[in-house]
Amino acid sequence: MTDVAEPQHPCPIPVAELIDLERHPVDRPDSPLYAALVAETRAKLDDDGCAVISQFLHDEALPVMSAEIRGIRPFLHESTIHINPYFSEGDPLLPKDHAINTFAERSGGFIPRDAFAATSAIDAVYQWPPLLAFIADCLDLPEIHCYADPLAGLTINALDPGQQFAWHYDTNDYAVTILVDEASEGGLFQYSPNIRTAGDENFDCVRSCQGEDLTTVRTLQLRSGDLQIFRGRFSLHRVTKVATDSPARHTAVFAYTEKPDVIGRLERTRQLFGRALPAHEAAERSRSRSDELKD
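RE: above sequence
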């Protein structure tokens, strides 16, 4: 039987020139360094649902990816809305100061999947099979797949000066991101680990975070080139306001799923991108929920 080679990504830059594989040998699953990196990442995820692999990208890759983002910025869907952590409407039957009825500004925007060129260096990293296998190992999953969503599979979250992403939960069990352009001030990632469970929304503690009681909150100063794996389904999190004299903060969001052919939720898609496609409408008609959480 003849082995079939993996299809080559059309990006002209080899992935080995984008990811620092000497420091982080994600392409060598049989090596002791790979095993140590997976073990360290799993330990961090087990501790509080968050793992950061510092300097994942080569320094030389950052200006390439930053220039790529600037080139597709015209496709950015930018908005300023007020959200609660559940991306839902308020509930008039609940007290006015309830977590569900407490809204904060979510500004900034997302560049959608269909804005990326076929030769994108960011996309080459996102789709690289050894990276998918490594992330699956870190999450102790048999395999993961690139999100099939035509808008949300690979995105750029952009926060310009004065913008922020308010407290929220993710719809996916985990998120994978790489910070490309960091803010000079502000733009901090904050999270309250496992603040809720599948059976308990823990609204009182959520409301405390909304009121700036950060007792349960951890703060990260991510740096350009850092890769983050984060379990955001149960951990409330936000990105603080980027300073008014800071450069824009750009984060590449790598969406993966345990099952193939997954499409995002219709309403969340419209909130993030200002539009939805027939694929989202079709998926919504056939969707069934896996839990009873508010979002």
